[in-house]
Structure formats: C-alpha cells, structure tokens
Amino acid sequence: MSENPVKPIYLGIGSNLGNKKRNIEKTKLYLLMNNIKILECSSFYESLSWPNPKNPKFLNIVIKIKTNLTPLELVKECKEIETKLGRKKMPKNSPRVCDIDIIDFKNQRMEIDLILPHPRMHTRNFVLLPLFEINKDWRHPILKLNIKKLISSLSNSDIRSIKQI
User: Is the pTM of the predicted complex or chain greater than 0.85?
Assistant: First the structure.
C-alpha cells in the first residue's frame, strides 16, 4: 500500500551581512530546534543584492522542510528566528543578517495575511537555481510552469550574475 506523497514546503534563506554562511547555518539550527525538519538543502549561491547591486552580495540557499505548523505559524517562527539572529526593522530590501521566505507551502495558494507561493519567486535567480538543484520537477502552483521553463525565462544577465559556491 503506497501512501500519498507529502507535498513539500520550500524555504529560501539569505544573508548579506556579517558571516553569511554562519548566519545561514545558524538559521538552519534554529529551524531544527523548533521542530522543523530539514529534508534537503541546496548548495550556497552568491548573487548581487537587489534592487541595489552596490549593497553587499547575498548568499542564498533553498531548503525542503517538513513541519506541522500552518503557513502563518511558520512565518511567525521565521520572523522570530530572523530577530534572534539580529535582523532589525529596516527599509525594504536593506542589507540583512538573515532573511527567510516561504517559497512554496505544499503547493497551496493563499492571499490573506500571507501570499503563497511567494509572489516574486518565479523571477528570482537566487530562488529558482537552488530550488532546481533540489527538485528538478517542481511546478509553480499558480503559473503551472515547470522550473526549467521559469529558469529559461530569466535574463542572461540574471543567469550570469549568480554563482554556485
């Protein structure tokens, strides 16, 4: 008897201040300490800061997790972890020690209190490339496009400006 495959949850984690790699590793540790199981983890990817490429470069990963939390409980947990790691209230897109985004929560669509899937994930090289690394068959829950199609729609400069570390 085969059981239904569990629909995965994907988080994007990024840092562009301080020891970026250590910040991301600490983030993963805090997730584990809060009963969030990490099933898979991409390599690190370095990309330009957006929208201001003069800010420090970002280091990003995508992780596949399992949790019993609801999407809103998970967001609350992520915000608490960001604060624990030293993230301060700053203008949007400012450099930060830690940034955790829910990329996809079990293919759910949500637009109240939280937008799922992440509204801009399909245009971001630092989300698509690490996500492709851990799930080559992923499909956007709303656009219904597979990840290869989404990556191929990125600009050449977007593809060239990111590197796997």
Answer: yes
